[in-house]
Amino acid sequence: xxxxxxxxxxVVEQIxxxxxxxxxxxxxxxxxxxxxLECTECGDxxxxxxxQALPGVKTCVRCQSDRDNRVEHxxxxxxGSKDSQLR
Length: 87
What we know:
By secondary structure, the chain is mainly α. The chain has one domain (10-73). 45% of the residues lie in helices and 0% in strands. The chain is built from four helices and no strands. The protein has helices at 10-28, 48-53, 61-69, 82-86. The protein is elongated, with a radius of gyration of 20 Å. The two termini are 18 Å apart. The relative contact order is 0.19.
């Protein structure tokens, strides 16, 4: 059920785009490459088991938890339909 300028299925497309953007952003935060022995933020040693479990890790558990809590998400959908932008 489209209304105004929105084409049929526009809402579903908008939801799919939002999910796709979130997946791309999450994948970009996954570490890759060689793990470091010391945390880049605090300098503490990164435990061997963490380095084995997550190749490419560059931070200790505490610093990574702090970073994860600081992740900000957009407050609006930048890919919104023309209808939603006009409201």
